[in-house]
């Protein structure tokens, strides 16, 4: 009897874990994360060269779900009319003439965003991402507030304040952190968040946000890439100018 009760307890516990993990990772998304990356920092980290001297799109990510429909394949012919803007605003920094980055983003994030009617096709998803990218104009906002690529360093408060003053909501600002003993961090990625109606909301550093990004963290780790993490409030921020051959 004791053995049966113990076994039942284990089964109940495992069932609870499955339900809980399913709820955390797969229930319907509540906000979208419009993610920009700074090409020079990305290429410093990934050992590539870039000709882009403005913030480019990394992706439009629902805060829940990853690769929600593996049978829904990317089809470049469905976005032919927006390809010029895609190539300019959402380039593959490894290979700007490739469509593989868009295929990856559609499979991993677009198929999950598509639960919303406004995003339920490839054309709608990519068009909306471009629309939001141009509407919020992160590059222009930073320049207007005198946050520009430079050899000088900035504080996290200055960068965050520039965006907060313009948008009225908090972004999530991520950096490439220095090794042990490093004196500054390098600005790498900025997330702007919107709700299901595409209205701006703060990108909160909450427990739910951490859980919803587990898969992104794991993919970085499995590929041997350290990736970006939330900037340290106490370290100066370096916003590197464009350099290198291209």
UniProtKB/TrEMBL annotation:
Pfam families: Ribonuclease_T2. GO terms for cellular component: endoplasmic reticulum lumen; extracellular region; lysosomal lumen. Its main location: endoplasmic reticulum. It is found in: Endoplasmic reticulum lumen; Lysosome lumen; Secreted. Residues 1-22 form the signal peptide. It comes from the Eukaryota. It catalyses: an adenylyl-uridine-RNA = a 3'-end 2',3'-cyclophospho-AMP-RNA + a 5'-end dephospho-uridine-RNA; a guanylyl-uridine-RNA = a 3'-end 2',3'-cyclophospho-GMP-RNA + a 5'-end dephospho-uridine-RNA. The active site is at 58, 105, 109. Keywords: Disulfide bond, Endonuclease, Endoplasmic reticulum, Glycoprotein, Hydrolase, Lyase, Lysosome, Nuclease, Secreted, Signal. GO terms for biological process: RNA catabolic process. InterPro entries: Ribonuclease_T2_eukaryotic, RNase_T2-like, RNase_T2-like_sf, RNase_T2_His_AS_1, RNase_T2_His_AS_2. One of its GO terms (molecular function) is hydrolase activity. Belongs to the RNase T2 family. This is Ribonuclease T2 isoform X1. It comes from Chanos chanos (Milkfish). The lineage of its organism: Eukaryota, Metazoa, Chordata, Craniata, Vertebrata.
